[in-house]
């Protein structure tokens, strides 16, 4: 193809675009709606639904400091119970309703690993207080492997 063919194609496409813009113009807010739709889709994938099920927060840290958190993405549900240990660290006990092949609790560069028992129970001992995220590889009902991760939460 030579430059005349490219110029003719470009002119044809420009006329075609002008016709469509006149006959069926894009809505003025299309870009904003698409950005919002992509952001919502990303949030639903990135951030599972967080529900504070139960919590006791004392003014002074003590044995009564516990929180129970439930996370779900619609097909997998995880229940976490966070409690304070004697030395001020945190213990995170969890239960998952799917077959979990890998379970990791991350805080920045730090990471703790656990394995789920036959009833989906797992635990992390001596977790540093701070913001954490739970990441898992789970096998769904069809046998397909997929990632599951929670939003960040305070331990």
Features:
single chain, alpha+beta, five-stranded antiparallel sheet, 10 strands, 25% helix
Can you walk through the features of this model?
A hairpin with a 2-residue loop joins β5 (99-107) and β6. The protein has helices at residues 3-23, 30-46, and strands spanning 49-56, 66-72, 77-84, 90-96, 99-107, 110-114, 121-127, 131-139, 145-149, 153-154. It has two helices and ten strands; from the N terminus they run ααββββββββββ. The chain is an alpha+beta fold and 155 residues long. The model is unreliable at 54-63 (pLDDT under 50). 16% of the residues are buried.
Describe the structure concisely.
With 155 residues, this protein is an alpha+beta fold. It has helices spanning 3-23, 30-46, and strands at residues 49-56, 66-72, 77-84, 90-96, 99-107, 110-114, 121-127, 131-139, 145-149, 153-154.
What does the main sheet amount to? 5 strands, antiparallel
Class by helix and strand content?
alpha+beta
Lateral strand order in the biggest sheet: 1-2-3-4-7
> Cα distance, first to last residue?
64 Å
Topology:
Blueprint: H1 3-23, H2 30-46, E1 49-56, E2 66-72, E3 77-84, E4 90-96, E5 99-107, E6 110-114, E7 121-127, E8 131-139, E9 145-149, E10 153-154
